């Protein structure tokens, strides 16, 4: 097991490099990121609903924010020391007239402050008596001055930022109609297995396809464009053709990874001239997962058929590859303390569904490779190193689907 990284990095003369076999979990993730090479090219897209993309350029403000001195409260804009003689009303969107000392104008939150105003007296702090307005206002009180949040041209977010709903809102507020983002990686999903039912109640010998529903929304939320989803049966020719003809940046297969009577996938990879980069990972569940380079610079991630093992393969290989293709930096590991001992595998990393409690994360039951009952309740998956994590010690967490 040791030394495989060197094998991957340094091909022997003339020979294709050996794939990393049973490689440590962290190394598998690093190899998946590295396999992507450069991020996909940049493209300009309309702002509307460009969710889950990644900025290919820094986002800079096109205007000052706010663009004018703004009232932060409902009340009166006042000029000079009080009391003030109030006259008129300013609503958001109105163009204000200059305000002379000793006068006030009723003003709404968000309205432009009149030139000459000292500050804003909140409605609940003002007192009217004999046609005059009384209260105390310090200079600049309850005013959002022009450029308080940013100046035009100021960088707001770096390249590599994931476009969240909040980023869309900020981009619009700062004057953008379009964003420069990386092209989305395309993903085709091939579900291997004759026993899979696409609808209805599973019966003897038949199981409902759980991964067809589970994977597309998860991968789409990670920035992928799902271009196809097909169930492929036992015919090897159809399988080879499906992989060979796919134009997706990433082909994700499910099932057929283990060296059993139906070890479909290695045969298909041979047939299409793929090069294995990762052939098994020292992780439970999910150890037969694999990553291969397809001809033409595309990739294939082979997820095990057991559904929790497939989720482990998604976290280990598919998401890091998609992140790198999308131009996102490696996320900083997040850790939280374990609420109780998290048992480990003697030699492999374990990915365990957990929930947060008041005193740390706790493992959920029903975490077998074929089970989804644990992960469906999970707030995260804990990365439990070989040997386990004692109560109170920090454990790395991955986002649950
Ligand atoms: N001799 C060996 N047998 C197995 C090994 C091994 O190393 N040597 N590894 C075991 C481990 S660990 C896993 S994980 C599984 C991996 O299985 P495969 O990737 O080969 O998948 P299949 O055999 O096709 O299916 C396994 C299991 O999952 C069910 N399945 C498949 N697809 C779906 C789906 N889309 N939705 C729900 N369930 C699905 C399938 O019906 C099987 O029950 O291999 C072990 N065996
Ligand atoms: O990798 Mo398998 O998921 O242990 O059952």
Automatic annotation (TrEMBL):
The record describes the protein's role as: Catalyzes the insertion of molybdate into adenylated molybdopterin with the concomitant release of AMP.
Q: Which reaction does it catalyse?
A: adenylyl-molybdopterin + molybdate = Mo-molybdopterin + AMP + H(+)
Quote the protein name from its UniProt record: Molybdopterin molybdenumtransferase
Q: Bias category Low complexity: which stretches?
A: 328-340
Enzyme Commission number, as recorded? 2.10.1.1
Ranges of compositional bias, category Basic and acidic residues: 143-152
Query: Which SMART domains does this entry report, sorted A to Z?
Result: MoCF_biosynth (SM00852)
Its keywords, alphabetically, are: Magnesium, Metal-binding, Molybdenum, Molybdenum cofactor biosynthesis, Transferase
Organism in which the protein naturally occurs: Kitasatospora paranensis
Which cofactor(s) does the record list?
A: Mg(2+)
Q: Where is the MoaB/Mog domain?
A: 188-324
């Amino acid at each position: 097991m040791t030394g495989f990284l060197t094998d991957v990095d340094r091909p022997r003369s003339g020979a294709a490099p050996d794939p990393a076999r049973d490689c440590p979990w962290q190394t598998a993730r690093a190899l998946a990121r590295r396999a992507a090479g450069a991020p996909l090219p940049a493209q300009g897209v309309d702002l509307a609903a460009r969710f889950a993309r990644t900025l290919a350029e820094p986002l800079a403000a096109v205007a000052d924010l706010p663009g004018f001195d703004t009232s932060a409260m409902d009340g009166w804009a006042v000029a000079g020391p009080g009391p003030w003689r109030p006259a008129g009303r300013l609503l958001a969107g109105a163009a204000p007239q200059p305000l002379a000392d000793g006068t006030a104008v009723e003003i709404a939150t968000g309205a432009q402050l009149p030139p000459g105003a000292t500050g804003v007296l909140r409605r609940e702090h003002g007192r009217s008596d004999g046609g005059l307005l009384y209260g105390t206002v310090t200079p600049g009180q309850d005013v959002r001055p022009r450029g308080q949040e940013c100046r035009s041209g100021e960088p707001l977010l770096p390249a590599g930022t994931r476009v969240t709903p909040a980023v869309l809102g900020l981009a619009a507020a700062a004057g953008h109609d379009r964003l420069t983002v990386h092209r989305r990686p395309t993903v085709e999903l091939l579900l291997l297995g004759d026993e899979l039912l696409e609808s209805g109640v599973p019966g003897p010998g038949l199981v409902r396809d759980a991964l067809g529903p589970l994977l597309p929304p998860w991968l789409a939320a990670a920035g992928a464009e799902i271009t196809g989803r097909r169930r492929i049966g036992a015919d090897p020719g159809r399988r080879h053709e499906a992989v060979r003809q796919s134009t997706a940046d990433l082909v994700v297969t499910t099932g057929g990874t283990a060296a059993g009577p139906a070890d479909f996938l290695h045969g298909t990879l041979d047939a299409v001239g793929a090069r294995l980069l990762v052939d098994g990972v020292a992780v439970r569940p999910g150890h037969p997962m694999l990553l291969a380079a397809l001809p033409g610079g595309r990739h294939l991630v082979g997820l095990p058929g057991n559904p929790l093992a497939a989720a482990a393969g998604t976290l280990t290989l598919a998401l890091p590859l998609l992140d790198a293709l999308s131009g996102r930096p490696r996320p900083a590991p997040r850790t939280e303390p374990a609420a109780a001992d998290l048992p480990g595998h003697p030699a492999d990393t374990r990915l365990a569904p957990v929930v947060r409690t008041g005193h740390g994360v706790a493992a959920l039951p029903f975490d077998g490779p074929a089970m989804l009952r644990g992960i469906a309740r999970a707030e995260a998956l804990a990365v439990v190193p070989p040997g386990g994590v004692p109560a109170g010690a920090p454990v790395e967490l991955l986002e649950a689907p």
